Amino acid sequence: MPTQVVCSSDTVSQLRIYARQLHTIIEEYQELINSHVVEFFVKNRWEVLPKSWQAALDGLPPDIMANQLLDHEMHQPPQTVWPLSLLAYRAATQALALDTTPPAGDSLSIKIDPALKQIDLLCRLHVKAKKKHEILRLAEVINSATRKAGTERVVDVGSGQGHLSRLLSFGYGLKVTSIEAVGCHLTGAAKVDKKIKTIIQKRIERQSEQPIESIPHTLPQHVECTVHPEITPEEFLDVIHHQSAVSNDSDQSKKHRKEGAANCAEGQNREVLSPVEKSTEAPTSLDHFLDIPPPMGHPDHDPTKESSNACLDMVNERSTLHPLVSEDRGSDAFVLAGLHTCGDLAPTMLQVFSKCPQARALTSVSCCYMKMKCALPEAVPSPPANSLEPVQNGDLRKTIHSDSLQESPILTESHDRLEFPREKSDSDNNSYSMDDYSTLNSKGYPMSKFVQSLGGKIIEFTAMELACHFLESYHKRLKASDANLILHGYRATLEVIIHGFDPGMTQSHSGICRIKKAVASVRKPHLKTFQEYAFGVLGALGIPCEDHRLAELEEICRPEWTNVITFHVLRSMMGPIVESLLLLDRVLYLFDQGIESKLVPVFDASISPRNFALVAIKDDDHIKLSSTNLKR
Description:
Number of domains: 2
Radius of gyration: 27 Å
Structural class: alpha/beta
Strand content: 5-15%
Number of strands: 9
Largest sheet: 9 strands, mixed
Helix content: 40-55%
Shape: globular
């Protein structure tokens, strides 16, 4: 696939074909995608693969596996002739996944404009290397979007510690409102804001006689708020304008105090310096990301009108709602931005953007797809699991692959795993029809009319979690035959003991948390034997196990440990495919709303794997139409 994906009236037909292809391959390999590597022995997951695949891949060493399955060119041809279905799987997963390489000619090192020398300070103070890379690149894209949208305002949704907001405010002179649900993050962000402001003031005092009052920087405005998936544009605007009104009152209070006025109200929000014009010399090397095609006049444009009850959870509200700053909200245009917005927050941003006329442009980078509600169906009560009888010496292999284990209901709601209850009918396994979306209470996926029309099975939690894996990093580990790879076999073998002792532990959120904590308690596990590893984990879980049983289990499972890795690789190859469909669904959704957009990889994937930015700028016709619908 090309580096950039443009969704316009000229390209939407090809993108719909592309989406159908992605959907088809995901449907074809549902059982593989929704299997868990940790259950390799418990549920005999190797049998998920066709017999011809098993024969071709059995016992493949990690370095050869990396070349034959993941490299674009095979330098070591298979010793046996591969089945066409396996060759097709390899080719399809490589050809259909979105290309994560940034556009050719685009330097990964941002050249700081001399007028923005303070950026080096912003990127040194409490900012790790990965975050520095992300905020430098995305800030440049956002700055370009503000110029093309004709506004200086940015709303940073899910701002976290405020690194991006701070760079946009101090580095580019933009007026930023940051929205974050976790109050302690905002408290920390405000402290760093003030610290940087003080440092810059001292620098200016040392280097020039410029009055401190004319410092060309505006502190970000911080709003502590949870943005719910059902939020309306009006409610979202209330959050922004509420903060602006309170900030203005705070500034007036400070002015009155300076003049010695009596009975003035104490400022209740963080200080905001007087806004000034931002520099026009900001870097522009990423402007081409924002070259959205001309207005399309889409014939199927049918904006929806939605309203809901109050969907805002204002945390620690310190004042009543002030009157809006301006009755004419059309003058308060802004760019809606988000860096690695988690779960439902990214699709919620798209919905607000499409319906809110004041939101003129969008730059959104998503992550944690598995935290969307559409990945978490309503809990179905599972029958109590029966404890297994102690394993006798001659029955271990039978126990590992027993029907009772394969049919054990697995239903957890942790971010580590979630499976639907399996039905007896093979045609109905792990299947939820499109009609079931009404019970899932989420709009995260599918969003577009076209992907909704494809029907089929829902992309589950397991698949969306897979979409967040970093296949390139694992590829390098395979090539180097990393010693840690053996832990796949260790963990899958250990699951047999845990499941045999207490099946319920592997089926509950609390149980899985206990297991993860116990596994993490073993230091340098790759340097230990399996029995040392097993005793460490089982001891932390309070599960007794005899030496001879562990030895017998290891003897049976060890020959399959390389196949555990192979199974993990085959699943991981589908991760980029799932992510590609999720992202493509979002640009098609915006097209349904009459908005053209782009998907562009803006980060170096080796530094930040979730590197696609969804970029959109509204045309005048869509803004007028949104304004009309909002008034209704």
